[in-house]
């Protein structure tokens, strides 16, 4: 079962217990004119200071922050689209004014990533935590082997668990945007691909027979399988010229696609994603190996084929 990340987990280190929950939040010490890159110090502040004052809302405050005539800080939705409306705290009509000083404070309050114990060392602006959780590479995922109840961070922990406890083969790639060659027996159904770059990620290569063809797919293992694609994959299979061919010929099958996200065994990324179909005539040797080349790129506005990915 995945850990329950409640507000106390999301906000990082919790202070002393009491009637009010307090959170140690890292804030930039600016002095008179200090810049955004200046020194920082830790303070303990109450949660409600960073949330909309309307009890039924309780959303995280994010710039621009507004307050009513009585000083209640409300989120954009609760103050109304024009800024002059009804304050749910005062229960009367009021005029809201922008609070640039509060904006500066809200934008500089950082907390440790909720997945710090899984390896993430980032400090995140408090109101940006939901977005960070969707993208964090260290968010724990369940083991990809059905029946195993281990949950671990994909890049180091889940990779090591699958390799040590389930004997999965792991291929380590040094960088993105480089082509690597793999030769895999058709009988194997899963391989792990690890890109050990500045943004380490774990990818799952799946092989299965679909009719008369061997289907190959690649997905990114991460908890948020609903997140948009962050990577593209160029995958191609090659086979030598048949011995009875009259002339030299090259047989190649290629697929270029966004890399879907996979959070659970047999999830939508595997069943509904793109598959490259390799015909049996392209398999090599008695063990029926498929010779693959693969390149994984970080997503950019435009993906252009290069000589490495013909």
TrEMBL record:
<dbReference type="InterPro" id="IPR044286">
    <property type="entry name" value="SINL_plant"/>
</dbReference>
<protein>
    <recommendedName>
        <fullName>SIAH-type domain-containing protein</fullName>
    </recommendedName>
</protein>
<dbReference type="Pfam" id="PF21361">
    <property type="entry name" value="Sina_ZnF"/>
</dbReference>
<dbReference type="InterPro" id="IPR013083">
    <property type="entry name" value="Znf_RING/FYVE/PHD"/>
</dbReference>
<feature type="region of interest" description="Disordered">
    <location>
        <begin position="1"/>
        <end position="37"/>
    </location>
</feature>
<feature type="domain" description="SIAH-type">
    <location>
        <begin position="108"/>
        <end position="167"/>
    </location>
</feature>
<keyword id="KW-0863">Zinc-finger</keyword>
<comment type="function">
    <text>E3 ubiquitin-protein ligase that mediates ubiquitination and subsequent proteasomal degradation of target proteins. E3 ubiquitin ligases accept ubiquitin from an E2 ubiquitin-conjugating enzyme in the form of a thioester and then directly transfers the ubiquitin to targeted substrates. It probably triggers the ubiquitin-mediated degradation of different substrates.</text>
</comment>
<dbReference type="GO" id="GO:0016567">
    <property type="term" value="P:protein ubiquitination"/>
</dbReference>
<dbReference type="InterPro" id="IPR013010">
    <property type="entry name" value="Znf_SIAH"/>
</dbReference>
<dbReference type="GO" id="GO:0008270">
    <property type="term" value="F:zinc ion binding"/>
</dbReference>
<feature type="compositionally biased region" description="Basic and acidic residues">
    <location>
        <begin position="1"/>
        <end position="10"/>
    </location>
</feature>
<feature type="compositionally biased region" description="Basic residues">
    <location>
        <begin position="20"/>
        <end position="35"/>
    </location>
</feature>
<keyword id="KW-0862">Zinc</keyword>
<keyword id="KW-0479">Metal-binding</keyword>
């Amino acid at each position: 079962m995945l850990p329950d990340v409640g507000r106390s987990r999301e906000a990082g280190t919790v202070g002393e217990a009491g009637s009010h929950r307090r959170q140690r939040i890292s804030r930039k010490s600016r002095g008179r004119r200090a810049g955004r890159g200046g020194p920082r110090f830790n303070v303990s502040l109450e949660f409600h200071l960073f949330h909309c004052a309307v009890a039924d809302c309780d959303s995280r405050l994010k710039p621009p922050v507004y307050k009513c005539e009585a000083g209640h800080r409300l989120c954009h939705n609760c103050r109304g689209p024009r800024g002059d409306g009804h304050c749910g705290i005062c229960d009367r009509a009021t005029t809201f004014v922008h609070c640039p000083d509060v904006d500066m404070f809200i934008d500089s309050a950082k907390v440790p990533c909720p997945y710090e114990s899984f390896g993430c060392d980032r400090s995140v602006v408090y109101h940006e935590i939901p977005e960070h959780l969707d993208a964090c590479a260290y968010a724990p995922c369940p083991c990809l082997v059905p029946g195993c109840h281990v949950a671990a961070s994909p890049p180091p922990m889940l990779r090591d668990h699958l390799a040590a406890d389930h004997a999965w083969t792991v291929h380590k790639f040094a960088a993105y945007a480089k082509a690597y060659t793999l030769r895999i027996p058709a009988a194997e159904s899963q391989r792990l691909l690890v890109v050990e770059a500045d943004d380490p990620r774990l990818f799952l290569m799946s092989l299965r027979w679909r009719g008369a063809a061997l289907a190959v797919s690649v997905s990114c293992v991460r908890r948020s399988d609903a997140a948009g694609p962050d990577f593209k994959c160029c995958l191609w299979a090659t086979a030598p010229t048949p011995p009875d061919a009259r002339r030299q010929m090259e047989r190649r099958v290629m697929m270029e696609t966004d890399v879907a996200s996979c959070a659970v065994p047999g999830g939508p990324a595997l069943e509904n994603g793109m598959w490259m179909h390799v015909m049996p005539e392209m398999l090599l040797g008695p063990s029926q190996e498929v010779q693959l080349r693969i390149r994984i790129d970080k997503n950019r506005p435009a993906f252009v084929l290069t000589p490495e990915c013909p």
